[in-house]
User: Fold these one by one.
Assistant:
Number 1:
Amino acid sequence: MHIFANTSLSKNATNSKQNTFTIYNLPFTTFRLSFTIYHLQFVIALLLGGLNTALAQTHEQPTDRGYIVKVGDKVKNNFTITYPDGTSTTLKKLKGKVVMLQFTASWCGVCRAEMPHIETDIWQAYKDKGLVLIGVDYKEDAQTTTKFAKTMNITYPLALDLDAAIFKTFAREDSGVTRNVLINRKGKIVFLTRLYDTTEFANLVAAIDKQFK
């Protein structure tokens, strides 16, 4: 240990230590303050970002999924279903039957992915039990609809919906196709699907099966 004999030197040394402390303490305090402000800004941004994301997701994927009906509702409109060959039926005429309406379109990739499963897992499995399955082609003419059915190699019928009148009975016009509506013998909706989700599709098949128990 070194002892300074000169008092002024000792004082200078003390001042030097004080100065040293001051020089290092100020940046440290500033760093701590900056660190705190940074984290506060980060937390606020995170919260706002999460809120914005949640709002965006709510906007893109509303809880009703674009439907204006829900399970348990009775279908009120007695719409006409017209096929490309000119024949037609009405929902009223189908009362007392289990009816599935599949909303689709030739330009819809998800629809194309789902339709082979509808053909094999639903139509082929339940047509002889009395299921009425009708594909409803969204805003496409008879020629396009006929070609679409042939391309997809389906045997269940595709009907026309040129002005989206049938679609708008169940969903908002701009809310997207790839939908299935299952209606029981009393005319009530018992199941609704949106897009092609394998779990939801399996639940749809189970709901159809239940109608024939």
Number 2:
Amino acid sequence: MRRNCSNESSGSAGISAMIIFVALILVSAVVSIVVFQFSQELFNHSEQDAEDTQVIIQGKIMVMDATLTAIELDNNENPLHATIQITLEMSPGTPDIQDDEIKWAVLCENENTPHQTRWSNEGNLESITTATGSGSDPGAVDVVEVGITYMITLSLHHTTDTDNDDILDQGGCPPNYLETHTLIFAMGNSGSYTSWDLRYDEKLETGDRII
């Protein structure tokens, strides 16, 4: 027995196929829009990351070495005062800057109230010198530039005499056994800064490298 397809059945099939085709086009369009938006967002993030990386690299100080050059102890063998010689360079791309516009600070835990404002010593790089050869022939400078190695000696000491014996015994950040203090260099008013850990061993001796 022969079956005949009606015109109505053929029309319904054609409409269904057309609906599926249109739906596929709409889905493809939505997927394309989502992919485009994601790609644009990814590009914007990549561009911002590149800018942030440039800011991180430029305007920074690179510490090449930090050596304990002198230390004074009290009667109980606790450090009272020390000097640290820092060897440093400016990172590539950093503009020239006046030496006194670069600030430094060493931060350490407040031994009286550990969760309060930390103790510190601070200053600027006004006394920075060039470091030719072994650094034994320093030359004073006014402007710090890229491509030159510099040296500066930082003085770390207590800042307060708590018992009126003319000995500073609290505040400030002289080295302390098995502690880690934070050295920070800030570049003028730019907001750019570099931080480094100063790590002290259970024994403190001149010549110790602490970075």
Number 3:
Amino acid sequence: MSSANRPRFLFAAVFITAILANSVFADAFDFSYNFANQPVTVTGTLTGTQNGNFVTDVNVTSLIINGYSVSGTIYTSQYAQGLGWINSGQPIVSFDGSFNNFGFITSDVTIGDYNNNDGFYMITFNGVHEADAYHFGGGSNVLVTDAPSLNANWSLTKSSLPQSTSSVPDSGATLAMVGGLFLTLAAFRRRIAA
């Protein structure tokens, strides 16, 4: 390799490494809920990190309400009694359903946007559980509420295939990557010049 092409090669190698390092794999989980009072089923897939009985850093990748596959962005939030839907706390998703407190909704209700047609949420307060699902449009409207005992109809299982998610680095990580790139290039140029 000629000395003129070395800086280009080094730059390309560092750039590709930075991109690959920025791609992470999250665990994938399949969830389902069968409503006891009506024949309605909600299923889907989410990604996140398992911490004992809980999954954190939740991102919903698919949501199916009674056979209807929800399209578009699915926002996740947590419900706080007296405050409503908030995004300051992560949704709580648990394997046994005992502490579920999440909303998977097609609008960002945390900022007051209630213009949505699809949603599924499960909340738990003082040992009382509530599950709701709704879909309006497409000729198959669904609106169902359930108060299950210990969320007996809830299932969350780890999927066999990991989901690739692209993380957005914070400004400090970006600054460190760019700074490292410039230091590497400066050292390489100094070495070539010598």
